[in-house]
Amino acid sequence: MEKTIIVEEALERIKAYYLDMLPFNKVLGIGIDLLDYETGEAVTSFNMKPDLVGNPVAGILHGGVTASVIDLTGGLSALLSCARYHQNKPLEVIEKKLVSSATIDMRVDYLRPGKGASFKCLSRVIRAGSRIVVAKIDLYNDIDTRIATGTATYLIG
Questions:
Q1: Alpha-carbon gap, residue 10 to 8, rounded angstroms
Q2: What is the radius of gyration, based on Cα positions, of the chain?
Q3: Is the pTM of this model over 0.85?
Q4: How confident is the model over 69-78, as pLDDT tens digits?
Q5: Domain 7-155 in this protein, CATH class
Q6: Which stretches does DSSP call E strand in 6-58?
Q7: β-pair partners for 151
Q8: 125 and 40 Cβ atoms separated by less than 8 Å
Q9: Per-residue model confidence as pLDDT tens digits over 83-92
Q10: pLDDT at residue 5, rounded to an integer
Q11: What kind and span of H or E run contains 135?
Q12: What is the rounded distance in angstroms from the CA atom of residue 125 to the CA atom of residue 25?
């Protein structure tokens, strides 16, 4: 008999995929602080380090890092939505979806310079279907100032 998706197992596989299998996430130093299976909310965090600086004079976060973190955190919300949508299917379904998901559109608005010792990124699903998920994502610095916001659309499997 095939195994159906169990919430804890699905969450562990999503975490393992993001933290162990995606080399760029390791370069960024991403940590996953929250994966809410019911709502699709995700929170990631990372510390500022010299390799992430975009302007050496100002010592601020590179805009590409900002966009990347917004994208990957929104992707977590999309995968949570996918796991929930397919919760009565075999666990192997979510694994296949992990490796075949993709960002199909993203907009980032840079609100303030990326100053801070650490950052957290919050994502929530604003629309979810069987194959398309749209997420709203915000990036904050260590004093809870929103430095960027984004909206991203993901194709799942």
A1: 5
A2: 16
A3: yes
A4: 999 999 999 9
A5: alpha beta
A6: 31-35, 42-47, 53-55
A7: 107, 136
A8: yes
A9: 888 888 888 8
A10: 62
A11: strand 132-141
A12: 21
Burial class, 5, CB count within 10 angstroms (exposed 0-12 / middle 13-18 / buried 19+):
buried
Judged against a pLDDT cut of 50, whether residue 81 lies above it is answered with yes
Angle (nearest 5°) at CA 48 between 121 and 111: 50
Where does residue 142 rank: exposed (0-12), middle (13-18), buried (19+ CB within 10 A)?
A: middle
One-letter amino acid for residue 43 of the chain? V
Rounded (5°) CA angle 28-61-77: 50
How many of the other CB atoms lie within 10 Å of CB of 1? 4
Q: Which of 145, 147, 121, 146 is nearest to 135 (CA)?
A: 121
Is the dihedral angle over the CA atoms 87, 93, 96, 102 positive or is it negative? negative
3-class secondary-structure state, position 57? coil
Q: Which residue has the tokens 């709502």?
A: 39
Strand partners, 122: 43, 138
Two structure tokens written together for 132: 């398309």
Q: Dump pLDDT digits (tens) for 19-64.
A: 998 999 999 999 999 999 999 999 999 999 999 999 999 999 999 9
